[in-house]
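Our preliminary data section would be incomplete without showing what the modeling component actually yields. Below, a chain of 599 amino acids is followed by its predicted structure, encoded as tokens that our downstream tools consume directly.
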Amino acid sequence: MRISGSRTSKRYICAALVVLLLAGMGVLAAPLQAARADDPLVRNTKYGPVKGKPVTGVETAEEKVWAWLGVPYAKPPVGELRWRAPQDPDPWAETRVTDQFGPGATQFNNMFVNLDYETYGQLYGNEDCLYLNVWRPRTTQTNLPVLFWIHGGANAWGESATRMYDGANFAARSNMVFVSLNYRLGTMGWFASPYLRTGDKLDDSGNYGALDIIKALKWVNENIANFGGNPGNVTIAGQSAGGINVHSMLVSPLAKGLFHRAIAMSGGPLSVPRIIGESSANSLLYKLLVKDGYAADESGAKQVADEWGNTKVAQYLRGKSAAELYGSGDGGGGFMSGTAMVYDDGYVIPMQMLLAESLGLYTKVPTILSSTYEELKLFLPLTFSTWSESDFGKIAKEMDIDSPQFDNGDTGIDFMSAVDPALQPLIPGYNALARSLSFAVFRAAGVIGAATAMSTYQRNIYSFNFKWDDEPKPIDFLFGSAHALDIPFMFHNFDESDNQIVRVMWPESTRASREQLANLMMKYVANFCRTGNPNSWGLPYWGRWSPLVQNTMIFDTPYSYLNPLPTVYSPTDLTGLEWLLEAMNPYSMKYFGFPMPGI
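Predicted structure:
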């Protein structure tokens, strides 16, 4: 019998060839497919199978979500890979257990990271930090929208393991996939040393944190379908430095096509010329050379570095420990300082980000831009107080949030007695100062400037201003609607445990108020992620931004409302005038209280 004469035999041979071809390409993985059928916690990625776990949300004991935590999206950026563009992780064959968060990036611990107040100012985290997390509803649904969260922290601190960023409640309540990541920070993430350059535009950019975010977005594009997500419907979102990084993704041509909507909260299109990064990086190098005895001063250190050349200097810098790099005084830095800036490197970030948006040279997707009413109140208490960060951390950790004793102090300290005597005369103007600075630092350029620029080229720009301040006294006065307070509302994560400073905002007396606003905000965000429009029937109408009518959704209790008139900011309290302006607004939900349909 000739084989060619048998149709059945031909089919078997063709099938066998297809199987061998697919197996050679790594497409077939029969044991993995069987495992996935038996165990929904096992999912395939381009690099190997991972196994997650069922999890609860921050405030619930119900396991309505599956999570895969600490999934590597790139090789550890250590040794020769320090200050280089992220590389694909090494593949693995055995199922990798991904049930714990990966380490946060190298940084200095502070009260915005956790309440381990005895370790503030100490080095925290790990260079091996390029891991992401995935949450999804405990169902068999596929093609779900994806929210990709970029944490804040001035690009110098922060991590995805922070309970405020937990994705379980959002994934369950919004029926979406939630992804968060860690990326390089501070000196490891933004370091524009001219001595490290080799001619590779990615490696030479200095924007390693931005490249990490792009790499994680590529991971989502290639793998998220295996977790039930839709790679064609990805919303990037971030707050503070995370918001700045959202703008960097809008402007970077390398991120084009990897996302389809954007939410930038309390962070605008802020970048600086790379020459500023070069100066900061050189200063660090010269200090290290002086410390190690290669030169007597920084002038001599520059001469030594020039004589060594790029190869030897790069070897010297990559041979330094994280402690040596950060211990020099220029590593990591504080709020929006030094090496934690996004650079206009001409390639990853082609030009200053606000200029790029003003010229229309960015990825045009539906975008929400936002701020809080009293952003600076997260930082002003430290400025006004004689307390240290550790003092604040200790009080926040040990306070009975349902029965605080401020007069005597749970820890023996009275808030008002801690005000710096030189600044006590400014206390009556504290609210006006906070609101005016918040407008100038966060809203003017980050929202008004960016929204006005972008709305020249697209209609689907939205804005909100977060004004909830129902905390108990004097927390409402001290912190009010402070920077980052909108995040727990958006994700419905009111963490009352003793490891986050915002826990002082969540006594039982505020539960009804915050639940009401959180439910509303989550609905808007879920609508936006699905369609690019936050509106739906039954919700207060949220109009688009335009340069002439600056529509802004005011998130507050007992009502949220659309205010198309610019908010009045003044050194004096103009609450009465604001009321009049808002009452004249026909869309004002605060005073007229009727729902308007979505578009």
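DSSP finds 17 helices and 18 strands in the chain. Residues 430-454 form the longest helix (25 residues). Preliminary results of this kind motivate Aim 1 of the renewal.
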